[in-house]
Amino acid sequence: MPDATLEALWKKVLHDWEDDRVHGAFLEYCQTSDRLVEAAVRYRGMAGDRERGEAAKKRLHGVAILAMARLESSRTAHSPGRAGRITGLLVLAFFIAATAALLLHLNTGP
Predict the structure, then answer these.
(1) What's the average pLDDT block by block, 10 residues per block, for the chain (110 residues)?
(2) If both were cysteines, with which of 9, 47, 52, 81 could 26 make a disulfide (CB 3.0 to 4.6 Å apart)?
């Protein structure tokens, strides 16, 4: 389902690429609305851009850090027992595998 707020924030990012505050607002929205994967896809799409590619790669790395921090904070907040820790590790492994598959797919695209 399209997210008008996300689209508007991304449009602003593209228009004001050099403004860190605009990127911050976009990432904050993605984090609070549980759309960090969407942020990763968009920044990954910009990684091949001649002028914006390096900055996009840095932003993509930042998205990964936000996702990992979110996973860690949810793990710490719940302080699960042994079974919960195993489940958490499985979720983390799935997230890493899904992210790697997405990046591989994007690298081998048309």
Answers:
(1) 90 95 94 92 93 92 88 65 71 80 70
(2) 9
